Amino acid sequence: MKVALGQFAVDRDWQNNVQTCVDLMQRAAEQHAHLLVLPEAVLARDNSDPGWGLHCAQPLDGPFVTQLLRASQGTTLTTVLTFLTPGSEHKALNALIAIRNGEIVARYDKLHLYDAFAMQESQRVIAGNEIPALLEIDGMKVGLMTCYDVRFPDLARRLACDGAEVLVLPAAWVRGPLKEHHWELLTTARALENTCYMVAVGECGPRNCANSLVIDPLGVAIVKAGEAPALLFAELAPERVRQAREALPVLENNRFAPPQLKA
């Protein structure tokens, strides 16, 4: 499976962001990618106004998603991204969607909200309550995660127990002391401990560190980006997953039951 990683800095204006997304989709499709992963919360961002994303939230049938669906028509490319969509109690949902050929083929509302390092995502966002179903792309089973989820091994393990061979992680990973180290360490750990590929895409810009990467099932980084906008490609092989799981059968040897959400 050929994957594309499109990292960019999210603009204050959603119209600019949708055009960036469409451009990356077109470029990925031209290179015959099967999967394009974009960053987290790509609808709109203003780093000087934490509430701006909530102010700009759009429903699934709003103009942002409608334009992306239109751009996806006629191709086999699956595009994964997250954006804020209106929820209840004057808050939003951080919704991950996968779109393909004019349709939304998967949705996952972020389970773990980023209430850490002096930030409070829960002030503006409602946590999801469902483990996402796997998505099949080019014969490989793909599990969906969002940013802060990577710090919680249970979700990645549950997806692997469900059969995931690839984990995708749109993110807006905030800069800070050791944060780039955390990003690489955590994405590598989730791939290695579950013998899955990890495709993690970060947002660029003054607040976030970008550094998108693909980690293979034995913890090897096969492609990495820096801090600037980029579109990278990598090939994921089902044979590599099978070889890793034969050599390192941690899922088979595991004596714990698959993780469950708290009631």
From TrEMBL:
InterPro entries: C-N_Hydrolase (IPR003010), C-N_Hydrolase_sf (IPR036526), De_GSH_amidase (IPR047999), UPF0012_CS (IPR001110). SUPFAM superfamilies: Carbon-nitrogen hydrolase. Residues 1-238 form the CN hydrolase domain. It comes from the Bacteria. PROSITE patterns: CN_HYDROLASE, UPF0012. Belongs to the carbon-nitrogen hydrolase superfamily. NIT1/NIT2 family. NCBIfam families: de_GSH_amidase (NF033621). This is Deaminated glutathione amidase. It comes from Candidatus Pantoea multigeneris. The lineage of its organism: Bacteria, Pseudomonadati, Pseudomonadota, Gammaproteobacteria, Enterobacterales.
